Amino acid sequence: MTLHLGAHIPWALIDHHLTEVLDLGLFPEIAIKGPELDTLDPSLVQRTAQTLTAAGVRPTVHAPFFDLNPGALDPLIRQVTFQRLSQALNVAGQLRARLMVVHPGVDKWRYPNLDQAWLTQARAFFPPLIEQAAACDCRLALENIYEESPVTLIQLVDGIGSEWFGHCFDAGHWHLFGRQPMAGWLDALGAKLFHLHLHDNHGRSDEHLPVGEGTIDFSPLQEKLRRMDPLPSITLEAHTPEHLMRSRHQVDRLLR
Fold this sequence. Notes:
Elements: E1 5-10, H1 14-23, E2 27-31, H2 42-55, E3 60-62, H3 75-94, E4 99-102, H4 115-135, E5 139-143, H5 151-160, E6 165-170, H6 171-177, H7 182-189, E7 193-198, H8 219-227, E8 233-236, H9 241-255
Parallel strand pairs: 1-2, 1-8, 2-3, 3-4, 4-5, 5-6, 6-7, 7-8
């Protein structure tokens, strides 16, 4: 199988780590925080885009997520969420990003028995953003965070039914919050599995350990990838260069 591997880079560190990641043969997943969108240096965006183009690499972008919620019941929260995600998509377009990851912002504790109300708002929220994403040639991938099962996210993605809108499966978040076996979760996503976030933990906190250094059994993912064509892209969500190298070694061993 041919794996399309990437590495997490915060926008604030793009000048420090972009060349390092490209030299490793990885694509960058560039994580942008909301307030950074108000103070972006256009010359840095242009310089980053030129470096990526020269390397023949299309990155992924991780959209802002703190305080944002595309299915919020308060219309003002949805309004600012759309503003931030639209701003991030504009940057993604300038960088020729192939995909942007978005957090859903829903959990059973803040929305007790309100998942369908959240879903109704989210279904109305995403179509204009998807239209913008298609114009940028950049797919949107909805990442599992606190979900115990993928049902609500699947209902959202399948209900909209766009080729530009799919799923990002985060293995670390699944291990912390998921109550459905990994194999069943992945099978439920089907061909709409666009992207993967791989990192590890011990099931108690979001440690972002290198793959293989926590307690996640990645063998169901290995089996899923053997059956998929085309394969989803993969970002190694390591937070230090050392963890990135260790994670990449394990992913090469497990998935190649």
